[in-house]
Design goal:
- By secondary structure, this protein is mainly alpha-helical.
- About 65% of the residues lie in helices and about 0% in strands.
- The protein has a single domain, classed as Tyrosine recombinase, N-terminal domain (DNA polymerase, domain 1), CATH 1.10.150.130.
- The chain has helices at about 15-25, 30-50, 60-70, 75-95.
- Helix 2 packs across helix 4.
- The radius of gyration is 14 Å and the shape is globular.
- InterPro entries: DNA_brk_join_enz, Integrase_recombinase_N, Integrase_SAM-like_N.
- This is Phage integrase, N-terminal SAM-like domain.
- Keywords: DNA-binding.
Length: about 100
């Protein structure tokens, strides 16, 4: 509001998991096979790491730590790239929603 944009000032207080599961995923338009792939990535790689964090508290350093953890766990570079695409879509929508 102070920046001159409308929005809910409490939106960033929701946990990542709640935002993804209650707002983003149910409303994000995807082909059926892509939806299944995204759900798998969210459940296996993304929500376990960011789920309990408040949306407003997630910083680039957290994303870098997550990528390093995926690398250390042996996740392939192609899979990490796909997970980053999903995460980016979540954050882009959250920013537009705020």
């Amino acid at each position: 509001m102070a920046a001159g944009r409308p929005g809910d000032p409490t939106a960033g207080r929701v946990s990542f998991a709640d935002y993804v599961n209650e707002n983003w995923f149910p409303n994000y338009v995807l082909e059926a096979s892509t939806r299944q792939s995204y759900r798998g990535g969210l459940d296996r790689h993304i929500v376990p790491w960011f789920g309990s964090m408040k949306m407003r508290d997630i910083l680039p350093t957290h994303v870098r730590e997550w990528v390093h953890a995926l690398e250390a766990a042996g996740v392939s570079a192609a899979n990490i790239r796909q997970q980053k695409i999903i995460l980016s879509a979540v954050f882009a929508t959250a920013l537009n929603d705020s």
